[in-house]
Design brief:
homotetramer; mainly alpha; Arc Repressor Mutant, subunit A; Tetracycline Repressor, domain 2; globular; disordered C terminus; DNA-binding
DNA sequence: AATGAATGAGCCTTCATTCAT
DNA sequence: GATGAATGAAGGCTCATTCAT
């Protein structure tokens, strides 16, 4: 038997909202793809916006779980960071999992609606805490001073960049250059760049020949 | 006498597009706010999309010039980088100029339309080249290998983060904490973080007491 | 209870289209006269053109049946022709049935759209075949050579003339003269003219005094 | 030097109106094709309808002349009739002369506007008189009784049929059959059909083999 | 005399939503 | 509880027309 209609509606709508934005998607299309009645959205969620926040909530409830899975205690902090970064990047590039969860969040963060603060508390802050914990392993000290925030932002920023600005990156580097930016390459770069910035690794070298030849030497 | 109607249309529309996105804004509203006729958009710009790209072009033409002003040749490369970063950040926070210029571009980059490649070529690429030149001063070598791109992206990413995710940052740090993130503080952090990452400066230290007390020691 | 809304829409639209043409009629006006919502046209017929072809189909389905009713096998061929001609003329003058059915078809024939070929096949060709059959009774021979077509056209042409050019005829003959053109008079004239043309009756004589006095001697 | 703007406007507009109908043609298109200003129509003709009636008048003034050119007095009446029929048909099929004059008239006759009665008096009635004169040569007698009118209508009707219903004829006969309907063939048929109908020629025979082989034996 | 920039009414269509079933 | 037919508001756009020049 097919899934619950409400669930189906949320999943279809989430995907479309993530893909094309709130305004560009019509309820007709959503209901049709979910094999539901046109009135189903209004019946189950009050109105279109109600469905949107339902998607947001669903996305956050799903994501929190697998982004925060505890890493082995004996893993080196640098390796934990790499996992964290890779985990965030993965959802965008991994075609096997629905990417709209993160997509939707990013959209919400870029231009916050009423539901934004909720998202931040339930989704973003846990992630930030997770990252803070990792950094605590790298640079023990006071946990939440401004400096810590900013370092965290610098790391997250790099991840988000590849997430959000993919098309611009493609245009800048050309299709061929862009193709070489595998998940591994990006993960490796951000990790090394960030570790070096906080004095926990060797600096990144533009002229490092190993980079071009064997992008992921630390895998 | 009031401004040229075409200009007024672009300014009003740009603001609204930047604020709410292309689809969420109607030409009727634009024309009303610009005290213009409903048909004015179609008359002057062909159609709504035409007005949109006109906004995009206007935004880009305003921005490009002042971001690329040549820096003194004798300025240290590290200082040039700081200026570059500060320049980008400034445009967001400077209240004397309409902020929709950047808003609109960010929107376009996040969900590129046909006009995106043009923006990239005319606005983004020159900026990238400007940054590459600075980096050439810091780390002489091949100019455009992949490593170079990624380092550039890591720097830009941090700047964009504070542009795009301002509301999230405020929510995470709380209003008080957020207030301390002056333009100087952010500039300083990104510059130091990036220089350290490429081995051109001391690592960033979360526990550095000087940071909290006197954020911008290099000013 | 009032008629089905779809029917009402077709009837109102058909009348207006027949009266003023496709382009000169707006959906607003149609819906208003049919006491329906503005969106009703698009909901029920897809778009305005959809309503138009619906009108066309309705018109054709109403007409086809009663024009083709089989005539008694023992009726003389000449009499069959008279019935055929009278049948065609009747539909124009019969006040009990909406005259827009024919109006619309004539319009379509004069300036054919995509739907024209359909009308021709479903409405015109059966009529042509019906006429051909009658002529086969008058002049046995090959059924569909070019000559046959042209004779048929000459007959139909006369009927259509009185349909289409009624106002011109009135102006030319004056109101009084026009009044004497009863259905019987016209039927009689066309029948006699056509029969004479193919050698199946006495020639028409402009000076025949019986005509003026007792127009329909064969009634 | 180029023609007068007013003339150019009338000619371009007449052609377009004749081709696509009044409503389907915009003043923009007219002015553009006439290399005139958008406001020229309103300036010279008051409004769009003013231009339309100007076209009508122009058409009538042109047509009257060459349709009524006096035929040689010694020409047999039957031959005069053939010339008359051919003259009317010609304007449609002859590509060297602008066909919109007649086109426009037919349009006006089919659905008369305010200008119709004027057209009838200035254009149609002279034509009718011309035809009546020819018929007087064929069947001397009272000039304007009803019978005369109807015979005239029967002749005109056939001509108009091929004029107006060209597309339907094409669909009915198929493209190949239609191609054989040259100007000569049609002229010949109508002439023979009409002469036979009034007892001034041999009847038309569907099975006449000469027709198929040599369509215009009387040429 | 003639222009062309600018107008506002109107066009068809699509939208999210509602209501009787 | 759930539907789908039907709604009215709003969408972007084109139109014939006008007015200052």
């Amino acid at each position: 038997m097919q899934e619950d209609i409400k669930t189906r509606l949320v999943e279809v709508a989430g995907e479309l909202f993530g893909e094309r934005g709130y305004e560009a998607v019509g309820v007709r299309e959503i209901c049709q793809q979910a094999t539901a009645n046109v009135a189903a959205v209004n019946y189950h969620f009050g109105d279109k916006r109600g469905l949107y926040v339902a998607c947001l909530r669903h996305a956050q409830s799903c994501r929190v779980d697998d982004l925060l899975l505890p890493l082995p205690a004996d893993m080196p902090a640098a390796e934990k960071l790499r996992h964290f970064i890779r985990g965030m990047l993965e959802s965008k590039l991994d075609p096997t999992r629905p990417q709209w969860h993160l997509e939707l969040m990013l959209r919400e963060m870029g231009r916050p609606t009423d539901a934004c603060s909720e998202i931040v508390e339930d989704y973003i802050r846990p992630m930030a805490e997770s990252l803070a914990e990792i950094m605590q392993g790298l640079l023990p000290g006071d946990q939440w001073n401004r400096q810590t925030w900013m370092i965290g932002f610098s790391i997250i920023a790099q991840v988000l960049f590849y997430h959000v600005n993919q098309p611009v990156v493609r245009l800048l580097m050309g299709p061929d250059g862009f193709e070489t930016l595998s998940l591994d390459v990006i993960t490796d770069h951000i990790t090394r760049f960030s570790l070096a910035a906080i004095g926990q690794g060797p600096p990144v070298d533009r002229n490092d020949p190993s980079d071009v030849a064997a992008p992921q030497s630390h895998k």
